[in-house]
Amino acid sequence: MQKKILVVDHPSVGLNTVSELLRLQGYHVEEAESENALRILCHEQYALIISDVLSDGLCVLENAKAVSPAVPVVLMSNEHILTRNEAIQLGADELIEKSELVSEQMKKIKRALHEGNPLKSALAPD
After folding, report:
1. How far apart are CA 85 and CA 92, in angstroms?
2. Apex CA 27: angle with CA 66 and CA 123, to 5°?
3. Within its chain, how far is the Cα of 29 from the centroid?
């Protein structure tokens, strides 16, 4: 069975590219804007959620973790919007900068999808 992935963003070249690459690799990808995503999360099950920080990504992250805590959530952002520790503390499973090479973005997405939360061990103690 295909793994189902939800990509949350306003129309964006960066996430559209990620969506298309995931589709080409055999994943079932659904796209939604943040206000629709919050409703969808209550009715659908996903193997992974990818959300842009600027598209209410933190709200999507909080709601996704409240509904399905085990589902990995990957946040995408422009550089320096969230620090790595802040993203981890909010429950993100991976943080991807939009400026990264697409191949690096895909590597992090697949790691989050198949290995769970790679960031937890990177969290520095307070």
Report:
1. 10
2. 45
3. 12
Name the phi and psi angles at 94, rounded to 5: -160, 150
Neighbour count for residue 112 (Cβ, 10 Å): 23
Residue type, 64: A
Burial 4-29 (b: 16+ CB within 10 A, else e): ebbbbbeebebbeebbebbeeeebeb
Give the DSSP letter of residue 47.
S
**Confidence (pTM):** 0.83
**Matching residue, tokens 């697949």:** 110
Count of other CB atoms within 10 angstroms of residue 111? 17
Cβ(51)–Cβ(71) below 8 Å: no
Residue-level pLDDT, tens digit, the chain, 126 residues:
578 999 998 766 667 888 899 999 999 999 988 888 888 988 889 999 999 887 778 888 888 888 888 899 998 887 665 566 777 777 888 888 888 888 899 999 999 988 866 555 444 444
87, 109 contact by CB (below 8 A): no
